[in-house]
Amino acid sequence: MLQIISGKFFEDGEIVHNECNGILYSNVAFHSMHPLEYENIKINTVDWHPGYPCYVISYDNCIEHTPKTSILVKIGDNVVIEQLKYILSFSLNAIFDESESMIEDLCRRGNAHDNYISSYVTETFDKERNFTREDWEYSIQFYKKMMHLARDEYKIVMRCLAAYHASFSVFSKDISLSYSILVYALETLSENFDEYTTSWSDYDQNARKKLDALLDKVEENVAEEIRNILVSNEHLKLSRRFTQFILKYLDDDYYKAIDKRQGSEEEVKQAVVKTYIFRSKYAHELKPIMKQLMDAGISANSEIFEFQHEVFFTYSGLLRLVRTVITNFVSSRNDVGKEDYAWYDDLPGTMSVELHPNLWLGKSNDFNFRNIDRNLEALLYCVETEHKVPEMNELVENYMTNILSIKESDRCTAYVLSWIYVNVVQGLDNNFVDKIKKILDKHSETVNKCCIATIIGNSFGMNTGCFDLEEVVTVINNYNKSKFKKNRLKIHSRIESRIYIEIARSYKDEDNTSCKYWYKKAYRNAVNDKELQSEILKEIELIKM
Q1: What is the dihedral of CA 525, 527, 529, 532, to 10 degrees?
Q2: Mean pLDDT across the stretch 223-246?
Q3: What's the Cα-to-Cα distance from 346 to each of 60, 339, 349, rounded to whole Å?
Q4: Which of 56, 263, 380, 475 has its CA 20 to 30 A from that of 395?
């Protein structure tokens, strides 16, 4: 949202201006007679506030009038303040938040066993700090760099800054989650921007030696192909990508001596690998980080912890690693001024929705026969939900008069759509219905093939060929495997349940195990129909096993 109101994506339309204000609290103070200017944002200090330092944020929540935004006046004030707090917290190595109580909680001091984050990371949550002019100037430059990122880069980095901030919020509840969230931020960058290609040398050394010994016994081209398959393993790529990406953005300043124990280059390499493993263990097993890394004293005084020659990041060490990688990554990106981008799709509170079939069904005659499945699905939805079916005469007539021109795989679907339209939908012109029914009779052999369309038609009473039960089951199973894929036919659950029930009845007395299976499938499919579920349960009780 900050990038949008900067005007980066606006063209030559009318700009509607909205002067707005917001408040952020912080643990660090700064006193100034004049507002601090972050390009399109002004930050004023408040001297009269008795609690934690308070800052008034002034900004122009401007928006360009376009055909897609003409109804909007002002939107996203909360997102503007939210994104600004992420940038300020990160660039000033402090904590900013809309809630003063959040600042108080994060800066609270206590015993080491209280799990207060301020005991693990001293500077970031220090209540006695004061910002210098140099601090603000650095922060302003970081803000400008963020605004000049390409839009896709900005959105990803902003997600990382949000994760950085969220890590603080959950620390007192779950240190392992807080630790993992920081790793997620690094992982997000590495997965989107790494250029690393895995090689055989990246494979686990112990396993690699054993495999090499075996692969030496087969032809060289076969051995190489096997190695390539093993190297393409997704987990191997992810872990190596993560490690190499992070090391790429650690500069000499990162290794400059500080006033606490930190890792050498080789130690950092090992600690990065262990960090990824910790994240994986927590994500998949909820396995907490090792107890030593939960110790406030160790984290406050050292960025790494060594145990039996293995090296690990403490929370404070991981935090500085994250800050360094994100900072250097942002600095390395090219500045982008004006950018052609559909910014209105990113406005908060907006989303894409599917239009109800009543708004589009029948509006197009589908002369190219590309939307037959979609049109059948829409017709069935209207029929089953008791919504009025739109007028589809021209569409149906186009399908039936050109039925032989439709490719064979879609012909049944077009036929069934037309049959349901003229036999189920009420209030159609009688002459039109008679005309279409004559064409349907002429091409009745079309529905002698067992497919999902003819099974659907049969559930509405359409005469079809006599299908083998096992063939029907195979078709339904294949349909269920593909129905959740984009651009595949997915019918209303009520029709599915009717089909399942009919299959169950066909098995009755001959194969009661299969009969019960399909009744149960119908029951679990009818989760939004209590009456139908009750009827199915009665049928299940009558099955003799």
Answers
A1: 50
A2: 70
A3: 18, 14, 9
A4: 475
Contact of 298 with 292, CB cutoff 8 Å: yes
Phi/psi at 44 (5° precision): -110, 135
Inform me whether the pLDDT recorded for 89 exceeds 90: yes
Answer whether 96's CB lies under 8 Å from 89's CB: yes
Kindly tell me the sign of the dihedral angle through the C-alpha atoms of 243, 249, 252, 253.
negative
The DSSP code for 17 is: P
Residue of 497, 485, 490, 491 whose CA lies nearest to 527:
497
Listed residue (6, 35, 11, 2) closest to 342, CA to CA: 11
Q: Do 161 and 326 touch, CB atoms closer than 8 A?
A: yes
Helix (H) or strand (E) holding 286: none
Distance of CA 451 to the CA centre of its chain: 35
Burial 402-427 (b: 16+ CB within 10 A, else e): ebeebeeebbbbbbbbbbbbbbebee
* CA atoms of 202 and 244, how far apart (whole Å): 11
Which tokens sit at 320? 């500085």
The identity of residue 187, as a single letter, is: E
For the beta carbon of residue 476, count every other beta carbon within 10 angstroms. 18
Residue 95 has what pLDDT?
94
Q: What tokens does 454 get?
A: 């003819």
Task: Tell me the pLDDT band of 234, cut-offs 50, 70 and 90.
Answer: very low
Contact between 24 and 96 (Cβ < 8 Å)? yes
Which amino acid would we find at residue 156?
Answer: I
| Residues 77, 22 contacting (CB under 8 angstroms) | yes
Which of helix, strand or coil describes residue 391?
Answer: coil
**pTM exceeding 0.85:** no
User: How far is CA 281 from each of CA 233, 275, 288, 423, rounded to the nearest angstrom?
Assistant: 18, 10, 8, 58
- Coil, helix or strand at residue 313: strand
* 514: confidence class by pLDDT, cuts 50, 70, 90: very high
